[in-house]
Write a structure and sequence with these properties.
alpha+beta; two-stranded antiparallel ribbon
Length: 173
């Protein structure tokens, strides 16, 4: 229980935990070695609303990939606008909240550059934040002006997290 409480406090303080090797007790009492990652979720008022935890049984690659897909699906249901892009800056996924905030439909924006969502004045700051994220640094609450499909600028704060596949290879932001 003490280890669990310390883990929760770490997620709250650091916003995420990546690749923590630990053990998980199953309902049947079996102890499995797992790789655990956790991300703090917050709402539009920056209030903490939950923690998404991903555990991968280190001996089961296919189950880890299924768990990663479930995590991805849960994250995309968030009320926060969420955009996933590959490491080249091409948008690979957006959730419904992002479609509403930016005015783009999923079908019309996937495959386009993420920079089209950021004002020209903030492009350099945005690209430096992306580079910091890819380098493993925490990017949280960065002030930028986002651009809607109609060209309207809105003040926003963005946070970025580096995403990895089941083999722990970074593949998206």
């Amino acid at each position: 229980r003490g280890q669990y409480d310390a883990l929760l406090q770490t997620v709250i303080a650091a916003q995420q935990i990546r690749d923590l090797e630990t053990e998980h007790w199953t309902k049947t009492g079996a102890i499995l070695p797992v790789n655990l990652s956790a991300v703090l979720l917050s709402n539009s008022e920056q209030e903490n609303i939950g923690i998404v935890v991903y555990m991968k049984h280190v001996a089961s690659q296919s189950q880890a990939e299924k768990s990663l897909q479930r995590l991805r699906d849960m994250t995309l249901l968030s009320n926060n606008p969420l955009i996933i892009m590959d490491l080249n800056g091409l948008i690979t996924e957006i959730n419904n909240a992002a479609e509403a905030a930016y005015g783009w439909s999923k079908g019309s924006i996937i495959g386009k550059s993420d920079t089209l969502l950021v004002s020209m004045e903030d492009q350099k700051k945005y690209l430096l934040s992306v580079a910091d994220c890819i380098a493993g640094k925490t990017v949280r609450d960065q002030d930028i002006r986002r651009i809607t499909k109609q060209g309207v600028a809105h003040k926003a704060q963005i946070s970025m997290h580096l995403l990895a596949d089941a083999k722990n290879k970074s593949n998206a932001v």
